[in-house]
Design brief:
Elements lengths: L8 H26 L9 E4 L14 H13 L2 H4 L3 E3 L7 E2 L6 E2 L10 H9 L3 E7 L17 H11 L3 E5 L7 H13 L5 E4 L13 H4 L2 E3 L8 H9 L13 E3 L14 E2 L7 E2 L12 H13 L4 E3 L8 H7 L2 H7 L8 E4 L7 E6 L5 E6 L6 E6 L10 E6 L4 E7 L1 E6 L4 E7 L13 E2 L1
Parallel strand pairs: 1-2, 1-12, 2-5, 5-6, 6-7, 7-8, 8-9, 19-21
Antiparallel strand pairs: 3-4, 10-11, 13-14, 14-15, 15-20, 16-19, 17-18, 17-20
Helix pairs in contact: 5-6, 8-9, 9-11
Length: 442
């Protein structure tokens, strides 16, 4: 759009041409990132980082990846939308001396990477790999990054059939221009691949800076760990930024710890590729309570973060089944036509807050989180959250899959310490009969 210009016709025409050229350049930049059809919805799937050994051991193996892919299918997770298998900094590649192409660590992937990817694809799943924008990756700096090899690595990933490239920000020569160069290199292959930024200067920039112009997703903050303080740190990174994310460009919180990371005794030796991990027996050593995992899942759902599970899904504990297999929660998360949720005062004049997402069908998802150390009464008021369907609403406990009836103006419930009550609010009558007033405790 041009403002009126009190200048000569020739100057005005020059300004018009300059503005149109700048607009065309901006549009070209955006289209180059988004025109591959990837990332309309937040991705869902499994990621390696905390599944065998404690978070950060991150060794992965041919047989393990096939077993996790099998589990996504046999458990029903694939049918719910979990269709990604993503390797983090665990495949420890080197470069071929003759061609400089990446070669996965042979003890972990004795037949190379392509047979594993082909197997994942044969199950109707999609596959992702990790690299770094600098000359080394982040896991101890043991593996080469893509600096100086962006085009070569992009061609390798495309030839292997990779669908998703996660790029970290480690080693020498990490730079914004490197992020841009890899984006261009991936697009130049002609193979649609989701490009996911792990970290970089965009995290401190307004509207995520350059990230939306080059990628389909970008991590909002640092690594997630299996403790409750880390959950809060993750979600605080997207506070006030709901409108900065949407179809084909999602800010994401780091992978979920649902059920607990792997266990220390699964791995022996150094954390480098010289260490040994036993992936054949799935284990969990949880760092959080069930209430805390419920809070993690509730907030990830409401802010529409990609749901990437970083723990071992072969051993599905009761809390994992409750949180990961809930169709109603997934529907809230995957409503790509709705603006992601954000924090707001839960009632006018109250110090309490709720994380609220207004869904595309007119419903609202409301997460009432008790960050305190004792059971507390938490409330949400319809006028405070911008409810547009009158003074009543139907309420449903999403995790309990239980209709709570209807309420007028204000809903209140007791919520246990570190727990979250995830509500779905619907127009009166949609979630319970009008005469059934709400009274609930968690």
């Amino acid at each position: 759009l041009l403002e009126r210009c009190s200048c000569s016709p020739s100057a005005s025409h020059a300004l018009y041409r300059l503005t149109m050229a700048a607009l065309a350049a901006a549009l070209a930049t955006a289209v180059s990132a988004y025109n591959n059809g990837m990332g309309e919805r937040p991705p869902m799937g499994w990621q390696t980082w905390c599944s065998v050994g404690e978070c950060g051991e991150d060794h992965c193996f041919d047989g393990q990846i096939r077993a996790m892919a099998d589990t996504l299918v046999l458990s029903g997770m694939k049918d719910l939308g979990y269709d990604w298998v993503v390797l983090d900094d665990c495949w420890h590649p080197t470069r071929d001396n003759a061609t400089a192409e990446l070669v996965p660590y042979p003890r972990f992937f004795p037949d190379g990477m392509k047979p594993v990817i082909d197997y994942v694809h044969s199950l109707g799943l999609k596959f992702g790999l990790y690299t770094s924008v600098g000359d080394r990756t982040c896991h101890g700096g043991w593996s080469p990054g893509s600096f100086g090899h962006y085009e070569r690595d992009a061609r390798t990933f495309a030839a292997w059939g990779v669908d998703y490239v996660k790029i970290d920000y480690c080693g020498s020569h990490d730079s914004v221009e490197g992020h841009r160069n890899m984006s261009r290199a991936l697009n130049a292959t002609g193979r649609p691949m989701s490009y996911m930024l792990c970290r970089g200067p965009y995290q401190q920039q307004d509207h995520w800076g350059y990230a939306p112009g080059i990628a389909q997703g970008w991590r909002a903050t640092g690594d997630h760990h299996d403790n409750f303080a880390s959950v809060r740190q993750q979600v605080e990174a997207v506070r006030g930024k709901a409108s900065w994310s949407g179809p084909f460009g999602w800010a994401y919180l780091d992978m979920m710890m649902t059920g607990g990371q792997g266990c220390k005794d699964q791995c022996v030796g150094p954390e480098s590729d010289q260490g040994h991990c036993n992936w054949t027996k799935p284990e969990h050593c949880p760092g959080m309570s069930e209430e805390e995992y419920r809070t993690e899942a509730s907030l990830y759902v409401v802010v529409s973060s990609p749901l990437m599970v970083g723990t071992d899904i072969r051993l599905m504990t009761p809390i994992m089944k409750e949180l990961l297999l809930n169709k109603e929660a997934i529907a809230i998360n995957q409503d790509y036509k709705a603006v992601p949720g954000d924090a707001m005062p839960s009632c006018h004049g109250s110090s309490q807050e709720a994380w609220v997402r207004r869904l595309s069908n007119g419903d609202s998802a409301v997460a009432l989180t008790n960050w305190g150390n004792h059971t507390a009464s938490l409330a949400v008021c319809l006028d405070a959250i911008g409810w547009t369907h009158g003074e009543t609403a139907g309420a449903r406990n999403v995790w309990a899959r239980q209709s709570l009836g209807t309420f007028s103006r204000r809903f209140e419930a007791k919520v246990r310490a570190h727990d979250t009550l995830l509500l779905l609010l619907s127009r009166t009558g949609a979630a319970g009969s009008p005469e059934n007033k709400v009274a609930v405790a968690m």
